Model the fold of this input.
Amino acid sequence: MTSLTLSTSSAATLRADAVVVGVAKGAKGPVVAPGAEAVDKAFGGKLASVLETLGATGADGEVTKLPAASGLKAPVVLAVGLGDAPAKGDGYDAEALRRAAGAAARALSGSKKGAFALPVADAEDAAAVAEGALLGAYSYKANQNGNSGNAKSGEKKNGAPLAEVALIGAKPRDKEFKAAAERAIALTAEINRARDLINTPSNLLNPALFAAAVLEAAKEHGLKTEVLDEKALKKGGYGGIMGVGQGSEAPPRLVRVAYSHPEAEKTLALVGKGITYDSGGISLKPAGHNETMKCDMSGAAAVFAAVVAAAKLGLRVNVTGWLALAENMPSGSATRPGDVLTMYSGKTVEVLNTDAEGRLVLADALARACEEKPDAIVDVATLTGAMVFALGHRTFGIMANDEAFRTSLHEIAEEVGEQSWPMPLPSDLRKSIDSPVADLANMGERMGGGLVAGIFLKEFVEEGTVWAHLDIAGPAFNESGPFGYTPKGGTGSAVRTLVRLAERTAAGDLG
Ligand code: BES
Ligand code: MN
Ligand code: ZN
Done:
């Protein structure tokens, strides 16, 4: 794992493999961002024009490497684009810093130490640079081999991530900077934990193995856990989770993992969709739609990561995670289209399409979570392809039974640099999930399918419980090339939003 230190050294004198500077798009060509003064000085104050000659523009994510001028300890200067230079007097946007630091850290993979001399005007900027660098350095199990899931061997093995990030310009003895760095370290370690789980192939991460990973982390961080196995689920009447999981050789689990603080005034329940593989079941997905479905437990991974992060940060709030874990497979024991399930809440559901499985496992977990009367519930799920059509690959949808809560979550996501958008739950779509043989059908109107799924979930949330649903089907898994601090594969989408929600709840900022 990449380590982070706050350095008091100047960018010129710190021993490192490369010194990272920021370059922004100015009105008359690239401009060197604050923080790089010592580096610019070594270039005789001509760094901007050297960069321009090399073709640098300062565009977002652009990386330019050049040999260092004499007087610099590091042999290489890496200039990373920050996008448009801010107006005079304004600082750099936190997300621009996060992305630039991420792109730089990725470009330095294989190196030992990077000295980051990006603009840090305050602790918030330092947090953004730290987060971006630690997230951008991520590589899936790069240092492991054998049967670890990273089967790449020999020369093809993933390069080792940048080992050490030194932040220049952040004051190591300042309380705010120190806290920002500590928070960034804890938060990014948990986002990277979620990414590892998401990237782990389904043959190496089934529901039981996921539950075991939770138990291990829980022991380390003093979390309370409860795991319901298939026997307990059957006995407990969890018809949704059992119905989805019963076709697989790897039986389902419902995991409760709870962080609590002795002085907490509020309790947050987080519910995650944890389909360790979604084949579609008897309504089998065609080729072209199932290659990435190991990612269908991204919601559960995000919830798990957020609970551990809350514990690491010692937040004054109770956070209870519910992980609904199942593998959706077709077999002689699988649920058939047309079957009727009796759910944990007592409602019955006609399964019209076994590929609409996420809402079934979530329905049970939501109903169970409601029994504990939390102050709010947020579920996170790679729920519908329709949400990807609606919002694309980088933005998650937010639905809720409470408009103020939906707005808060949207603002929180924005604040932490996660793209999201509020979506409605129009009541006219409710009748499309009527069933002639059960209380509900698990599929309805195709148009607005993401909203239909949300409307289905709402049926399992107790009246009066504040609830929101994040459909992360788009941003959870990056199938194209890496960008900013986002790697290929599992992204850890929603973790930052959940952690900030927990922090806000602890601070008494919400309701
Ligand atoms: N896991 C999928 C949704 C998904 C699609 C996640 C693409 C990530 C990327 C979900 O279980 C699913 O199959 N949903 C169906 C629902 C339909 C059958 C009502 C869908 O969206 O097609
Ligand atoms: Mn499915
Ligand atoms: Zn699914």
